[in-house]
């Protein structure tokens, strides 16, 4: 069959990984086609992930900040929430960047094909526009960036709109009186933060023995304490065993160590993880090996087992984060364009944009213990930061982990407002191989929360013993 379109590089999927790869490749001179099943570019992150969730979390933060201002003598009234306007704001932010991406593709002469792509051979992908039309695209090289989607736990009545995944929750169809959040990971807790601020009564159930499994326990405590104070019911080591749609709500039954009192919910959000789309692109027809769980194995240049086919982003594994996808996308494009490069970054930061925020990077204490890595810890409590106390957030802390042999920083974690912004310095320090004294000798502006990073290094060094 004659190809309808020919190109040097086909990028499958226009999420942060895919559009970054396509734009970089085009900048490096490759004739690039970008295939995306949805009209709007930007993938999960822009359309139903990072960006809309953060727009809504900002609204939640404003509501909470106003409520807490009473602590220092400024009382606002009960917020009047116009859900339609809030939804429109979120959509406006997303739309602005959809438009921006379309413009960036056009500027670079990246040809965007709308439709669902699947391999038909190692050098061909068929794109189905869903309206009966198909196009055969022949490529010299390909970057698979088809991402992931929410895991739909079996046993839930998914045909009932009161059962939601994160995409549904971001639609903001209403403010349920009672909301059950299944899964106390980053996505579940961010959405819980939004809906609680909007007025929902929240119950969270989590299978593990802590919220946000993966982060050190001490980091999660200030968040759990605050959520509890705000009336969020948290049930650990507990799972939903049945969820039934009834006229008056979704009736759930639970199993575990902490069974919620409430059994009937107006809505249920299931946020128990994401599954890669590796099984949905007929990868076998190109000879690309897909693992059992749907992830595609790649080497340090993002090549699959078929050398001219690369894969990047959520589809290649954890952590499923946008900044990992973009970094991998850029690398794959550069390698495809002939540059001799490979993955060199040491660490990938994780951030939960909850209140307080939780951010960590590199080795965690839990991991160090499990792997027998000898580390030393420098911890600076924000109660000793006048700036943190001034904003009413003395419960936060900054923690740095050092290799005991070299005093080099190997990990760090921060809990408190703006932790997501602050963690970037720790990531840079790790990449640069900084020692505790390098961080301590770097003069940080006063009074800022960023000082806490230098202070944590100094606590480790023993150069400050008194926290003033
Ligand atoms: P995706 O963004 O999943 O994009 C893949 C694209 O491929 C999609 O547009 C899809 O439509 C398209 N596609 C798939 N199959 C085909 C096909 N066969 N043909 C054509 N097109 C196809 N990460 C962060 O770093 N920070 C955050 O704050 C954050 N918040 C999040 C909040 C939520 C609610 C969710 C769900 C996720 C969040 N993430 C966050 C994760 C982040 O969205 C993902 O890690 C990121 O989008 C992965 O990018 P990607 O390019 O690999 O894939």
From TrEMBL:
Catalytic activity as recorded in UniProt: N(6)-[(R)-dihydrolipoyl]-L-lysyl-[protein] + NAD(+) = N(6)-[(R)-lipoyl]-L-lysyl-[protein] + NADH + H(+)
A Gene Ontology biological process term: 2-oxoglutarate metabolic process
Keyword check for Flavoprotein: yes
Keyword Oxidoreductase: yes
Keyword set, alphabetical order: Disulfide bond, FAD, Flavoprotein, Lipoyl, NAD, Oxidoreductase, Redox-active center
Annotated cofactor note: Binds 1 FAD per subunit.
GO function terms (MF aspect): dihydrolipoyl dehydrogenase (NADH) activity; flavin adenine dinucleotide binding
Name listed for the protein in its UniProt record: Dihydrolipoyl dehydrogenase
Native source organism of the sequence: Luteimonas salinisoli
From-to range in the entire protein, with total length: 134 to 601 of 607
């Amino acid at each position: 069959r004659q190809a309808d379109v020919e190109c040097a590089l086909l990028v499958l999927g226009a999420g942060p990984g895919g559009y970054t790869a396509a734009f970089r490749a085009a900048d490096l001179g490759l004739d690039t086609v970008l295939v995306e099943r949805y009209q709007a570019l930007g993938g999960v992150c822009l359309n139903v992930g990072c960006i809309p969730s953060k727009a809504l979390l900002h609204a939640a933060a404003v509501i909470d900040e106003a409520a807490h201002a009473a602590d220092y003598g400024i009382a606002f009234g009960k917020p009047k929430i116009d859900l339609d306007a809030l939804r429109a704001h979120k959509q406006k932010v997303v739309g602005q960047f959809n438009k921006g991406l379309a413009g960036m593709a056009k500027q670079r002469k990246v040809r965007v094909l709308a439709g669902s792509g699947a391999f038909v051979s190692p050098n061909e992908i068929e794109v189905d526009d869903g309206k009966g039309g198909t196009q055969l695209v022949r490529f010299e090289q390909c970057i698979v960036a088809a991402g992931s989607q929410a895991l739909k736990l079996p046993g839930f009545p998914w045909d009932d709109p009161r059962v939601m995944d994160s995409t549904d929750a971001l639609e903001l169809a209403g403010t349920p009186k009672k909301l059950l959040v299944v899964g106390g990971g980053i996505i579940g807790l961010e959405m819980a933060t939004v809906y609680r601020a909007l007025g929902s009564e929240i119950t969270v159930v989590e299978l593990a023995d802590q919220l946000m499994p993966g982060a050190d326990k001490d980091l999660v405590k200030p968040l759990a304490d605050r959520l509890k104070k705000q009336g969020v019911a948290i049930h650990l080591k507990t799972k939903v065993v049945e969820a039934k749609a009834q006229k008056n709500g979704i009736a759930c039954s639970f199993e575990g160590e902490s069974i919620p009192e409430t059994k009937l919910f107006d809505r249920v959000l299931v946020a128990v993880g994401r599954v890669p789309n590796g099984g949905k692109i007929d990868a076998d027809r190109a000879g690309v090996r897909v693992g059992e769980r749907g992830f595609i194995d790649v080497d340090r240049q993002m090549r699959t087992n078929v050398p001219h086919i690369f894969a990047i982003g959520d589809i290649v594994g954890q952590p499923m984060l946008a900044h990992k996808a973009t970094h991998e996308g850029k690398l794959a494009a550069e390698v495809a364009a002939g540059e001799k490069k490979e993955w060199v970054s040491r660490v990938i930061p994780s951030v939960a944009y909850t209140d307080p925020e939780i951010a960590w990077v590199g080795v965690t204490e839990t991991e160090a213990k499990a792997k027998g890595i000898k580390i030393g810890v420098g911890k600076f409590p924000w109660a000793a930061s006048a700036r943190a106390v001034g904003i009413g957030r003395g419960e936060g802390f900054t923690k740095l982990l050092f290799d005991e042999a070299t005093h080099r920083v190997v990990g760090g974690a921060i809990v408190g407002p703006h932790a997501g912004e602050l963690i970037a310095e720790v990531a840079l320090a790790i990449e640069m191989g900084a020692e505790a004294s390098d961080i301590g000798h770097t003069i940080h502006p006063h009074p800022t929360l960023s000082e806490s990073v230098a202070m944590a290094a100094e606590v480790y060094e023993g150069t400050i013993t008194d926290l003033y």
